[in-house]
Design brief:
Blueprint (H helix, E strand, L loop, with lengths): L12 H13 L14 H11 L4 H8 L3 H8 L9 H14 L4 H34 L3 H27 L3 H35 L1
Helix pairs in contact: 5-6
Length: about 200
Amino acid sequence: MRVDTGGLRVVAAEPIESAELGREAGRDVPGLEPDDPSTPGAYIRVHRKRRGVSLDQLAVTTKIPRRQLELLEDDRLEELPGMVFTKGFLRCCARALELDPDVVLGLLYEREREHLRARRREGIPAGSSSAVMSRPSRAPQRKKAAPVGLQDQILAWARRQLERLPSARILMWLVVVLLVALIVLIAFTLASGQVNQVGSGGL
C-alpha cells in the first residue's frame, strides 16, 4: 500500500521551535501578542511589513536615516549612537506605525536584562581569577620602597654632618687671625733680639 507523504514538511519544525522560544522570551512584556517577536527591532520590522510600509517610507516619516533603521530592525543596537538614541528611535517608529511605545520599550528593557544576566554569569569566574592574579603584584611594590627609604636616611645623615662643619666665612677669619698672630710673634721675636744685642754691647 502506497502512502502519500507529499504533504509532510519536516523543515517546518525549526520555525515553530524558534517562534515558541520567541514567545517564551517575551512573555513578561505587557501588551505583547503571542505571535509577536520578542526583540524590539524584529517587533518593529514585523509590524512595518504588516502595514505595508517600506523602510524608506518609515525613514521619511520618522526622519531617521535608513542605515539607522536597518541596524534597529536587525537588533544591532550596540552599533547605534547610544541608549538614549535607541529609545528615541524606537518611540518614533512605534508612533509612526501606531504601536504602543511602552510595549517596544518593554522588549528593549527585557533584552537588556537578558544581556546583563549573561554578562554576570560570564563575569563571575573572570572576576575571581583576576582578583587572585592581582594579589602577588603588591609584594614587589613593598620591596621597592626599602631602598628609597635607606637612601633618604643616608642623605639626611650626610646633610647633618655637613651642617656641623664651619662655614667658609669662619674658616677665612680663622686664617686671618692665625696670620696676624704669626706676624705679631715674629715682630716680638725680632724686637727681643735687638734689645738683647744693645744690652750686651753697653756692658
